[in-house]
Amino acid sequence: MAGIWLDVLDEIARTCSAHGRGDLLQTVRQKRAQLLDPTLRVLVIGEPNQGKSQLINAIINAPACPVGDGRTTVLPTVVQHAEAPSAAVAQAPPPASGRPVGGAATVTVERTPVALNQVAAGVAGMIGRRAGGGPAYVEIGVPRALLGAGLVLVDTPGTDEVAGVGGPAPVAAPARADTVLLVSDSTRELSVAELNMLLHVMRAHPNVVVVQSKTDLVADWRSVAERNRQHLVEAGVPAALIPVSATLRLRAAASDDRDLNAESGFPALIARLQRDLAGKSDHLARASVQAVARTVVEQLAAPLRAELATQEAEEQSGPISRLHAAQREVDELRRCSTRWQNTLNDEIADLLSDIEYDLRDRTRQILRTVDEAFDTADPLDAWDTFQDWLERSLVEAAEANHEWLIQRCDWIARRVAANFNRYGYDVLPPWSMSMPDDIVRRLPELQRPTIDRFTTGQKLFTGMKGSYGGMLMFGLATTLAGMPMINPVSVGIGALFGGKSIRDEGKQLLRRRQATVKTAIQRHVDDVFVRITRDCRDTVRQVQRMLRDHFTGLTEELQEAIVKSFRSAKQEADTDASLREQRQREIRLKMTRLAALYEQAQQLTATRSAPLLLEPQT
Q1: Contacts of 505 (CB under 8 A, 6+ apart)
Q2: 242 φ, ψ (degrees, to nearest 5)
Q3: Rounded distance, CA 106 to CA 93, Å?
Q4: Which of 43-57, 97-111, 382-396 ranks highest by mean pLDDT?
Q5: In this structure, which long-range contacts are made by residues 304-309, counting pairs with CB atoms below 8 Å and at least 24 apart in sequence?
Q6: Rounded distance between C-alpha atoms, residue 471 and residue 464, angstroms
Q7: What digits encode the pLDDT tens for the residues 544-590?
Q8: Of 454, 456, 419, 414, the residue nearest 431 (C-alpha)
Q9: Across the strands, what pairs with 592?
Q10: Contact 138, 78 (CB under 8 A)
């Protein structure tokens, strides 16, 4: 069976090399050398004061690790077989530049012998270490048959973060373990920190045993053990729990008491270690390869999944999104072209209507003033003064109307240009309108109307007609009284009637003159209105054509730029889509191979780990 797991491990190494992960490749090579090593390296971890050192002493039945007197384990302690008791402090050289700690298996380790009575000082880190050197640990050799069979015990400092468990191990790697023993005493249940440590350790070390120490101190240690097993099940930690008492073990060894030794729980622990030692090249190696496969595949698949997700995100924000944006720009320009044309046509139509209404209102005010003035004034007397006022009023009306026309045309140009605001630059046409200098000469000249005058002869003739009728009427009346027809009374009455006829005729002539002047002014104002309206319409049409040509050219310019951008985006999107599709096929192929490698590793044992999600979710 060694050939099977070794082939899988070599395939994992080749996969790491193919993915360019030298760090993982080095880890796999170290694991390969470790699994081919016939010794069983047992790592003892746990929080401070849990009895780790005493546990090792009880396993080998020798005081190898210093305990008591407030001893603190600072350096890892490797307890292994030796023909005679020995101790040394091993220290690696400082890490070379560009080489990670623990990255090379052939680094020379410097060993400083330590007297057996100074082992405690060595473990405490007080002697044997060089300043500025690399990681150090203590090696203790003990002549024991259990160790001679290939068992190596590693005592670790009592910290929550054990060196080498979660990160790089020191050179000569005492933390490169085949079996991990987590020690927790019976005075309390497993803590959250210990459970988290177990979960972390089991990612790299599948063979983990929880040792519940100091059962001799707690009468109800069996209840504590049962609760601890429940905690392990709830936390999803498939680790066995073995309660032990190092004190009872050492006492049993001293008195050769088999029953007391059995009560200590160490026979079950030692049997487990011997079973692991015997099965290292088979069951334990296959479980370790499974753990390596899981770790390697997870680390290789994670960047592939991230890249696949990134490519999917770039598909929404890359060339495809730019292509969609260019298409939206084309559609928006088409809508913009429709909007500005509708705006221009609507505003020009409103302008023509408003300009005509404004001029009509101004001329009506002038005509109302004319009517009011000539209701009382005599055109014969007021014409010259009135003519100057009328011409000045018409010029002012024409100038005001034209000034408003200029303002409205400028406003229309800005209103149409507002449709192009999203394109980010000034699109107003380079044009200007001003008041024409010849506006007075462009107005029709006011001709003086023909006005009837009341001449002296007309007055005499009118007076004679009126006096004749009055004198005749009253003369006939006086003849009835016996008076002659022509008498002083009839002559006086005739004179009165003659004067009245002259006055009535003068009033009628005045009204005719006023009506004639009003009619003439009405016609003149109408002519002015028609002339100015025509000029305004011509101006508005010129402005409309100018704005139409300008914004049509601008639209064509924008359309050419947008279409060019659209074609470029489409070409880029097609190229990017082809490259992305090719890269996605490569990623999926790699992930499929990783999944096959993972499945191959899981086939090494009948008991399989939880499935690992490799395929990208669609």
Answers
A1: 454, 458, 459, 462
A2: -120, 110
A3: 12
A4: 43-57
A5: 304/587, 304/590, 304/591, 304/594, 305/591, 305/616, 307/583, 307/587, 308/584, 308/587, 308/588, 308/616, 309/616
A6: 10
A7: 898 888 888 888 888 888 777 777 777 776 777 777 778 778 888 88
A8: 414
A9: none
A10: yes
- Taking the C-alpha atoms of residue 352 and residue 368, their distance in angstroms, rounded to an integer, is 24
Instruction: Summarize the chain as % helix, strand, coil (round to 5).
Output: 65, 10, 30
Q: Round to whole Å and give the CA distance between 307 and 583.
A: 10
Under 8 Å between Cβ of 91 and 129: yes
SS3 letters for 398-440?
HHHHHHHHHHHHHHHHHHHHHHHHHHCCCCCCCCCCCCCCCCC
State how far the Cα of 241 lies from the Cα of 272, in Å rounded to an integer: 11
Question: Which amino acid makes up residue 468?
Answer: Y
d(CA 17, CA 23): 9
Residue 167 per-residue DSSP state:
S
Angle subtended at Cα 209 by Cα 203 and Cα 210, rounded to the nearest 5 degrees: 110
**pLDDT on residue 610:** 42
In terms of Cα–Cα distance, which of 96, 130, 94 is closest to 112?
A: 130
And the tokens for 45?
């971890």
526, containing H or E segment: helix 488-602
- Give the span between the Cα atoms of 262 and 252, in whole angstroms: 9
Burial class, 79, CB count within 10 angstroms (exposed 0-12 / middle 13-18 / buried 19+): buried
Average pLDDT of the chain, as a whole number: 79
Q: Which two tokens stand for residue 485?
A: 């027809």
Both tokens of residue 470? Answer: 């009055």
Q: Tokens in use for 301?
A: 């698949």
Amino acid type, 82 = A
Look up residue 22 and give its amino acid. Answer: G
Q: Is the pLDDT of residue 182 over 90?
A: yes
Looking at residue 611, its pLDDT comes to 42
Count the helices and strands in the chain (H runs, E runs): 15, 9
